[in-house]
Task: inverse folding
């Protein structure tokens, strides 16, 4: 592992332990060249995924880009980082276990929207505004009406049972 401070290749693992959800191994490392300490995370990757963008361009799947977009949507919202991590890990597992090595960006966006809807309505609307390319206030109104209808229907279903 290359040292992020000096670029040296000689680093040593000082401590390894699984994360809370047991999907990642956290490793504390020290650089033998400069003495810098840093942390790396190791996770299982079932297959290399390629994302097919809307313009048909193909790019490698980037878990960190997915995480950044979810963190932007949940910024300043009362959502625990652990829940965001679990949601992103779940999406990645779904994509990797689908059996496909190429995934449409639209499918990823749909999975993120489903996850955010369960986490936080405001984060869901923020993400949807970018994902669905909202241009006018009425686009927000339509999405909010859709959310209100779904909430009302779920409350009625809960009352019936």
Result:
């Amino acid at each position: 592992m290359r040292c992020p401070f000096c670029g040296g290749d000689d680093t040593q693992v000082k401590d390894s332990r699984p994360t809370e959800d047991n999907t990642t191994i956290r490793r504390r490392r020290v650089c033998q060249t400069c003495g810098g300490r840093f942390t790396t995370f190791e996770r299982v990757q079932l297959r290399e995924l390629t994302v097919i963008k809307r313009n048909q361009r193909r790019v490698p799947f980037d878990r960190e880009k997915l995480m950044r977009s979810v963190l932007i949507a949940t910024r300043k919202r009362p959502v625990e980082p652990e829940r965001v991590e679990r949601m992103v890990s779940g999406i990645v597992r779904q994509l990797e276990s689908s059996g496909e090595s190429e995934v449409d960006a639209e499918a990823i966006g749909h999975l993120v929207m489903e996850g955010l809807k369960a986490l936080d309505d405001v984060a869901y609307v923020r993400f949807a505004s970018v994902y669905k390319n909202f241009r006018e206030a009425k686009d927000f109104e339509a999405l909010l009406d859709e959310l209100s209808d779904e909430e009302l229907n779920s409350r009625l279903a809960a009352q019936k049972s």
Observations:
- The chain is about 50% helix and 20% strand.
- The CA atoms of residues 143 and 149 lie 10 Å apart.
- The helical segments are 63-74, 81-97, 105-119, 121-131, 137-160.
- Strands lie at 11-18, 24-31, 37-43, 50-52, 58-60, 102-104.
